Amino acid sequence: MNGLIRNGLSRLLIAASALGLSPAVLAQQYPAKNVLIVVPTAPGGPLDVLSRLIQPRLSSLIGQTVIVDNKPGAATYIGNDFVAKSAPDGYTLLAQGFSGLHSHLFVKGHAVLSKELVPVALLAESENVFISSATIPPRTLKEFFDYAKGNPGKLNLAAFLNTQIYLQTITFLQQNGVTLVDIPYNGSASIYPALARGDAHFYMATIGGAKAAIEAGQVRALAVPSPRRSLLLPNVPTNREAGFDFDASGIFAIVAPARTSAPVVRYLNEKIQAAIDVPETRDRLEKLGYTYRTATPEALAAQLASDAVMMERAARAAKIQPE
């Protein structure tokens, strides 16, 4: 993906030079009209919340109205396809999570979107937490793994299939020689009741999504797979503190159609970062269970490419075939 981005941007800059247009001039001509951010999921989800969080300030910063439009359906394919086929002029953008950008691993006919979209800006990273059902004895991650190894075939993984969280969880379990029985669920609305009942026993959740169930005593927080403890769960150890070298977070980003010019991509990156990197917005992100860090388009592309290798390996290891 990095090579694709570099080659595409180089061609655009060469063409601009041939026309006598400098990157600065190209950037100055943008934006001249409203900018659309397509959210390929239903209202209320992380992508929708994050897009609407930056919408007012981003509109002010670019001097044009930013419109957020939900186009859910077909495992995010409808929204993805709409943006991928839009003009590469910076006026139609896509808010997407990492799993959605690699839906071809799970769904037949889905395009390899890393070839059709170019990374623009990081919106946020989700903070995750490993949780277990309160119906079983373990209270730490090590205790859970020991309990699972001592009770083979008796513990179930709440499997939110076709997601980065699922593949990261599978990778972590395999690294530690732990085998759980996959029980597929369609999302958190069914996963948390299953954990509370004891139908499922283990899950990696976003902290924002799991906090209420943890506080209600329905599930136990075992460890946070992050370099540092979460402000939302300050008493829960990190994976490293629990004795396990494994980090896992979920990326939410803004992307644009391939061949969008380098000056426009850089302009959007700077403005989106400026829309997020203010105290009130960062405070809101932390309260929702997200973290933010600055990232250039190139750095974001490199991270997405690296994570894609992990997902592809995990998908093969889990014997996942597109359906």
Structure, described:
The structure is a single chain. The chain has 323 residues and is of the alpha/beta class. It folds into two domains: 2-126 and 250-317, Bordetella uptake gene, domain 1 (D-Maltodextrin-Binding Protein, domain 2, 3-Layer(aba) Sandwich), CATH 3.40.190; 128-223, Periplasmic binding protein-like II (D-Maltodextrin-Binding Protein, domain 2). The chain has helices at 2-18, 23-28, 46-62, 77-84, 98-101, 141-150, 164-175, 188-197, 207-215, 262-276, 279-288, 297-317; strands spanning 35-39, 66-70, 92-97, 117-126, 128-133, 156-159, 181-184, 202-206, 219-223, 250-257, 290-291. Strands 2-1-3-10-4-11 form a six-stranded mixed sheet, with helices on both faces. Mean pLDDT is 86; it is low at 1-24.
